[in-house]
């Protein structure tokens, strides 16, 4: 398994989309971006090209998966879920980290 710069950038952009205050500012600075809207637009423009499977010709195959697991006790804002779904082609999953940590671990790692 290899973690590409693209996947790391995408994950940090996804985190920035839900961050506020100094955390958001630090992520934007690190990603050299002016806004989360800029990052979201980049992701929505770029990720559809990543998901194209060009391996039948014998070339490299890139597998790219993003997901977000949040404790079920937390509320997910609909606007954030929309960004995750539409811009990052990722899923938001609510799990019980507090009382069913092992089951949550299995789900996250599957």
Summarize this, please?
With 110 residues, the protein is mainly α. It has 5 helices and 2 strands, in the order αααβαβα.
Tell me what you see in this structure.
- The chain has 110 residues and is mainly α.
- It has a single domain, classed as Antithrombin, Chain I, domain 2 (2-Layer Sandwich).
- It contains 5 helices and 2 strands.
- Strands 1-2 form a two-stranded parallel sheet.
- The radius of gyration is 15 Å and the shape is globular.
- 13% of the residues are buried.
- Belongs to the serpin family.
- It holds the Pfam family Serpin.
- One of its GO terms (molecular function) is serine-type endopeptidase inhibitor activity.
- This is Serpin domain-containing protein.
- List how many beta strands DSSP finds: 2
CATH topology: Antithrombin, Chain I, domain 2
- Head-to-tail CA distance between termini: 14 Å
The structural domain count equals: 1
Helicity level, as a percent range? Answer: 40-55%
CATH architecture: 2-Layer Sandwich
What's the CATH first level? Alpha Beta
Q: Which regions contain 5 or more consecutive residues with pLDDT less than 50?
A: none
Taken from the alpha-carbon principal axes, the silhouette is: globular
Number of helices: 5
What is the string of helix and strand elements?
HHHEHEH
Within CATH, the superfamily carries the name Antithrombin, subunit I, domain 2
Main pleated sheet: 2 strands, parallel
Strand order of the largest sheet: 1-2
